[in-house]
Amino acid sequence: MNRSRIVDIQVHVVELPLRKTWQISLYAANRRAHAVVRLQTEDGIVGYGEAAPSPAFMGETGYTIETVLNRYLREAALGENLFDIARIHERMDSSIDGNSAAKAAIDIAVHDAMGKSLGLPVYRLLGGKVRPRMALSWVVGLQSFDQAVEEARRKVAEGYRVIKIKVGQALADDVRLIRTLREELGDAVPIRLDANQGFTPREALALLDQVRDCPVEAFEQPVRKWDLAGLRFVRERSGAVPIMADESASTLQDACNVLRNEGADLFNIKVGKVGGLYRACQIAALVEAAGLKATAGSNLEVSIGEAASVHFVASQKALSLPNDMLLGSALHSANLVSEPLSVIEGHVLCPERPGLGVDVDEGLFGHRS
Question: Residues of the signal sequence (predicted)?
Answer without folding.
Answer: none
